[in-house]
Design brief:
Elements: E1 5-11, H1 16-19, H2 24-32, E2 38-43, H3 49-61, E3 67-70, H4 71-82, H5 86-89, H6 97-104, E4 111-115, E5 119-121, H7 128-137, E6 141-147, H8 150-156, E7 159-161, E8 164-167, E9 174-178, H9 179-183, H10 207-217, E10 221-232, H11 245-248
Parallel strand pairs: 1-2, 1-4, 2-3, 6-10
Antiparallel strand pairs: 4-9, 5-10, 6-9, 7-8, 8-10
Helix pairs in contact: 4-6
């Protein structure tokens, strides 16, 4: 399946100056070691969208990314694809709109690797190739991701398949999926009780919770590739950089 996966990274006010700088994308793609079809930057919730666009254009010119998009330009179409409205995402729309747009981008490759700007691989590792093979061989696996914590991943899993542990659960920090299959899930409807464990569930049903719930309701699972491990370096809740701390979390 080589050549069928896009790498998508969303940037916002706190992260865009770092991510949209020369060298950041080659470092990420070299650490993964997979030949992505397209490297795509999404620009979302910035104080100066024109400045972010200027930096993104420089990366396109340098062949470090292939394209970039404003999330705002595609969010209505993405919401329509999954049968949601912007009201369904409020008051935390920016925790969901970027990932929905990433899934529904026009002319996207069949598979997408979504990568949080604050995440790094602890060691270089091509987790994409074995994950594609895993999803092709296991019909119940709809997403795959590197390990964030081996002990926690094993504890949450129901069984092991080779280097993977498989079970219910979802995180939007880093994941691989087949776009059409995920978009076809039931995004609207009652939340699975277990999905209320997410920290923001009392405020809004964000992308992470909605996808986790849809997977549980359709008995679909994720596969965590234990040989690849990630670290998260950012501050939770800063998609809204001007909000107070209690609003952000």
């Amino acid at each position: 399946m080589a050549g069928q996966v896009d790498l998508v990274v969303n940037v916002f006010e706190r992260t865009y100056r770092d991510v949209l700088t020369l060298g950041w994308w080659p470092h990420l793609t070299n650490s993964i070691g997979y030949p992505f079809t397209k490297r795509v930057a999404l620009i979302n919730n910035t104080d100066d969208p024109a400045d972010a666009a200027r930096l993104a254009d420089q990366l396109v010119a340098a062949d470090e990314i292939d394209e970039w998009h404003y999330v705002a330009d595609h969010v209505d179409a993405a919401l329509a694809t999954v049968g949601l409205s912007l009201r369904d995402l409020e008051p935390l729309a920016h925790f969901s709109d970027c990932a929905l747009v990433a899934l529904a981008l026009p002319a996207g490759s069949p598979f997408m690797a979504y990568w949080d700007a604050d995440v790094t691989l602890d060691q270089p590792c091509d987790w994409i190739t074995p994950s594609l093979a895993m999803m092709a061989s296991e019909a119940t696996v709809i997403v795959a991701n590197p390990s964030w914590d081996d002990a926690e991943a094993v504890a949450e899993a129901s069984h092991t398949v080779g280097d993977f542990v498989v079970g219910y659960g979802f995180s939007d920090t880093t994941f691989l999926c087949e776009r059409a299959r995920v978009l076809a899930l039931p995004w609207r409807g009652p939340m699975a009780p277990a999905s209320y464990r997410y920290p923001l569930a009392h405020v809004a049903a964000i992308f992470e919770q909605r996808l986790d719930s849809a997977m549980r309701r359709t008995r679909l699972q994720r596969a965590t590739y234990l040989p690849a491990r990630t670290s998260h370096h950012g501050t939770v809740g800063t998609q809204y950089p001007h909000a107070g701390f209690t609003s952000r979390v």
